[in-house]
Amino acid sequence: MAGSPNASNMVVGLDIGTSKVVAIVGQPTDDGGIEIAGIGSHPSRGMKRGVVINIESTVQSIQRAVEEAELMAGCDIHSVYVGVAGSHISSMNSDGVVAIKDREVAPSDIERVIDSARARAISEGQRVLHVLPQEFSIDAQGGIREPLGMSGVRLEAQVHLVTAALNAVQNIEKCVRRCGLEVDAIILEQLASSMAVLTEDERELGVCMVDIGGGTTDMAIFTEGAIRHTAVIPIAGDQVTNDIAMALRTPTQHAEEIKVKYACALTHLAASDEMIKVPSVGDRPARDLSRQALAEVVEPRYEELFTLVRDELRRSGYEDMVAAGIVLTGGTSRMEGVSELAEEIFHMPVRIACPQNVRGLADVVRNPIYATGVGLLHYALQETRHGQGLKSHGGVVAVHKGRNELARRDIKDDHSALARIKGWFKGNF
């Protein structure tokens, strides 16, 4: 990417998962899509259920993934958009009210009403990750999506508030900084994934997205175009691997291989006469096992997972509003029989989704495994398009070393100019 004129508007998504770390480098295309320039992936060993349990291992995994992405894209990576998941994340719907200053809604009014919605009592040790507007009301008129420029006296906002444990977020930031990278933003993983795999129609009609990863299963429910509910279920691909290892008495890495190659989530779809070799522990000889017997181990775990998702969907109160059904993504959703089993449990249409609107290395990233990584790019580019991305250079600078310094200075100048403008606004209004 060294000589390309667009090297300055590249962004990097870093998905630090329980089973793998993925770094994806991309830049916007004119039609609102993403051109993928580089991708790096490395097995992750320092995470458990979305939380850092070993800083050293995590740092090494991030470094390898980022180096691989840098080599492929031919650029230096300086900062990244990072995804976060785990049971420590909680969310709620909140609202705020302010008086409209000049009888016409200005950007400052929207900022103030969102600030008042986020002023909910957040428990000690939690940090606000996102304040996602759902809809606005002006005086008695509700259901407004874009209030800017409208006339009225009183502005209300309904928002979805996402918080995460402060120490969990700090540990992730620490790992990224130890690799010599800056953190542009920390983003909820299911919010990122939803940007990569859901269509506009699905969000409007109502949809429940379920991202089944290695350590956690992340849910996001959308209705009328806005996010309404998010949740994390601590059962995912690792438990399936663990079940196979225990039931077949085989080492975990062999269990993982068997799962990826041969497992099926529905017993009646697996052939009873198709045999697989199962390595034993120690120096005992390998055994033969039918694919159906393997499916009998896997099916109950998926059934439990989908039942927990269904219960969470019921508890959220949106079960009757997700007309577009269930969208599954994430590496653990790729197994044969998963969508059929999910349809049996949810009694709704189910589809398995890959990242959309991608070019460049599209054939590589069109895989549920990369939903979060590509989604982080969608999120980052949306931020910059909306003018909120102060770092206009997105953290990737072309290889020409002379321009690196210039770009870094530019970013600093952007910051100080914005700070001056903000200060002037505060002083005058």
Description:
The chain is an alpha/beta fold. It is built from twelve helices and 21 strands. The strands form six sheets. The protein has a six-stranded mixed sheet, with helices on both faces. A five-stranded mixed sheet has the order 15-14-13-18-19, sandwiched between helices. A hairpin with a 3-residue loop joins strand 1 and strand 2 (20-28). The chain starts with 10 loop residues before the first strand and ends with a helix. Residues 1-5 and 388-413 have low confidence and may be disordered.
Q: Topology, pairings included?
A:
Blueprint: E1 11-16, E2 20-28, E3 34-43, E4 47-48, E5 51-52, H1 55-73, E6 76-77, E7 79-84, E8 90-99, H2 107-118, E9 126-138, E10 141-144, E11 154-165, H3 166-178, E12 182-188, H4 189-197, H5 200-205, E13 207-212, E14 217-223, E15 226-233, H6 237-248, H7 252-262, E16 275-278, E17 287-290, H8 291-316, E18 326-329, H9 338-346, E19 350-352, E20 358-360, H10 362-365, H11 371-385, E21 396-397, H12 401-428
Parallel strand pairs: 1-7, 3-20, 7-12, 13-18, 18-19
Antiparallel strand pairs: 1-2, 2-3, 4-5, 6-21, 8-11, 9-10, 9-11, 13-14, 14-15, 16-17
Helix pairs in contact: 1-3, 4-11, 6-7, 6-8, 8-9
